[in-house]
Amino acid sequence: MVSTYGIKKTEILDQIRKEKTYSENALDARRSRMQDMLRLYVQRTGDKEIYIQYIYAQLRQLLSVLYSDEIQVKFMGYDVGDQDAADKRTKIAEFDYSEMEKQIHDYARLRDRIFFGVGIEVFDGRDSDKNVPIISTRSPLTWLPDPKGWLNADKFRRHGFQSKITKEDAEQMGFGNIDKLDDTTPRPYGEDNDFNNITEDSPEPSEEERAEFNIYHHYTKIRGDIYLVSTDDACTTIFRMSKISEVIGKNVFPIVLSYFSPQRHDPFGVCLVDLSEDKQKEISKLLNLALQKAERDALGTTFIFDNSAIDDAQIEEMKQKTEQPRFINAKVSAGKTLNDIVTTMPTETGAVDAVNLIQQIDFQNRISTGID
């Protein structure tokens, strides 16, 4: 039996359904674009053209600069004898950092922050055995926030997350109505479409993976208090309801948002792809044109010749490759030179121009992203 804190289930479900539908409709275009952005992360090179992995390289570069996998805060003692206590606290903090797997969550949140524009971390409670906070990193693709919120979690009226769960995990987490947990319908956005699943020919899920069911987690205010309510996608069944103040001791959203470049009243802000997508496409286009030009030049040079001085048989002989010196008999009229008989077709400098353009685009992108 799921406790609803004396609030009617119909009231709760009606509110969540309305808020979820509003966010889905308002953010559908943005979520669709984010799904398309993943295809730019690693584009496959075809047989006849190549793609420059420009965004991938920039993301790696920013991650290497901004990410640190070691805790930076250390406690210091001020008076004589304080340092021993400070060192103990530092070791406890380092232990908690390791037990929470904070370095993994920090990396994922930073990656999402750069690529999607926002990184999301959620406090899910405390581990009673290890006595450390339980945190999780949520993909922005699964996020259904207040469409007018921005900057930090408390400037939002609500937050929703699409997720998946097995019945075993749901039972361990104290969910009710587990027998009604049966929806496996693929979603257009969400955990099925993320960094780990960005190719169109991904293998079919295993039987174990098929046992994961869709679930929706909704953080919202009901009668002045913030609650976490877990329902099905249609918002017809409540599997879990928790009052946040009882979990973390405060009536605030247990969510931390990190932005790449926040924009007022834009939940996602500006991301790396917004700044670099057009540059990646143009650089790939210019490079492919330059390669096509170079290929044409390498496959053979076009000659213009005087057929009164060189006959067809001699032309065929000139086409043959040989390791030995070869002498071709040509009739050079008075007042003419060999250059008048055979000359190469003038070619354009398109390949060089393309390289210069690519360098200019790269320079402009460094200005717009701040990457140098």
Walk me through this protein's architecture:
- The protein has 372 residues and is an alpha+beta fold.
- Helices cover 41% and strands 19% of the residues.
- The chain has helices at 9-41, 54-66, 82-99, 102-115, 167-172, 207-210, 244-248, 272-299, 312-319, 338-341, 350-369; strands spanning 118-127, 132-138, 143-145, 158-165, 213-222, 225-231, 238-243, 255-259, 261-263, 266-270, 303-305, 342-344.
- A hairpin with a 6-residue loop joins strand 6 (225-231) and strand 7.
- Helix 2 (54-66) packs across helix 4 and helix 8 (272-299) runs antiparallel to helix 11 (350-369).
- The longest helix has 33 residues, at 9-41.
Short précis:
The chain has 372 residues and is an alpha+beta fold.
Structural class: alpha+beta
Shape: elongated
Task: Give a short account of the largest sheet.
Answer: 5 strands, antiparallel
Strand order of the biggest β-sheet: 3-4-5-6-7
Cα-based radius of gyration, to the nearest Å: 32 Å
Main features:
372 residues; alpha+beta; five-stranded antiparallel sheet; three-stranded antiparallel sheet
Give the SSE layout.
Blueprint: H1 9-41, H2 54-66, H3 82-99, H4 102-115, E1 118-127, E2 132-138, E3 143-145, E4 158-165, H5 167-172, H6 207-210, E5 213-222, E6 225-231, E7 238-243, H7 244-248, E8 255-259, E9 261-263, E10 266-270, H8 272-299, E11 303-305, H9 312-319, H10 338-341, E12 342-344, H11 350-369
Helix pairs in contact: 2-4, 2-8, 8-11
